[in-house]
Amino acid sequence: MQSGASPPGPTVDPGHDSPVAHPAPPRPDPLDMRPAAPMTDTHPVAIPDPRPPRRMVFALTPLADVMFQLLIFFMLSTTLAPYALVPLSAAAASDAPGAPPARDEAPSATPAPARGLIWHVAAGRIREGATSHPIATLPDLLARHVSDGIEEIMIFAAPDARTQDLATVLEEARLAQVPRVRLIPRPGRGMAGGLAAPPASEIRP
């Protein structure tokens, strides 16, 4: 009685009478350090990027800087005309060409706009429109304007105006009892003689 299975015998080729032995496959050598042959049946694998997609952002900071620089440039180079202080009144309806004559109406409660003058004070002279007057003729000039019903004088200091010229004009206007005098300095500069002044100084007698 056999205790174990007998090893397989040699295989018999059907075409031959004698048995034919087939060689066994070679066993891998554990000491062989050569790299294994590459696998030919491979496919590329795409690894997803964990970072979110980057979007193109248009920076507005340089544009804002340019706009602020242009704003500052125009603010410094632009002169705010103080002539806006002069009251203007619209023409009456009867003054328009072809308009019918105005009827006799009750006087309006709205007061008439004040009559004003604009003077440019220079060195020893006063320019009123296209006419220039010496400082010495200022009392007669003021008396004539006050008799005509002048109510306001706006005084602008020329670049060559002296402090004494401005003081003389203001004093003569006070003595002539001009209702209101406005002293307006040049934009961005002080008054003549290095004296700083507010944007518009109103002087009443």
From TrEMBL:
It comes from the Bacteria. GO terms for molecular function: transmembrane transporter activity. It is a single-pass membrane protein; Single-pass type II membrane protein. GO terms for biological process: protein transport. The lineage of its organism: Bacteria, Pseudomonadati, Pseudomonadota, Alphaproteobacteria, Rhodobacterales. Residues 1-52, 94-113 are annotated as: Disordered. GO terms for cellular component: plasma membrane. This is Biopolymer transporter ExbD. It is found in: Cell membrane. Belongs to the ExbD/TolR family.
